[in-house]
Amino acid sequence: MFEHHIHQIHQFRQAELIRQAEAARLARQVRKARRAARRAAKESGEGRVSSGNSGYARAA
Asked: What is the pTM of this model?
């Protein structure tokens, strides 16, 4: 009986580690895609566009 519980705990932990690894892999892919998109935009001359409104009132 005890060995059965140990086996279940091991399977649960293994599944949890697999989920964590998949989440980390997905996060790396997202960061890589964002970097590539920023790089492509920079190379094509399309940068951030400023609205001209910085949130401050115009001085008199």
From this structure: 0.60
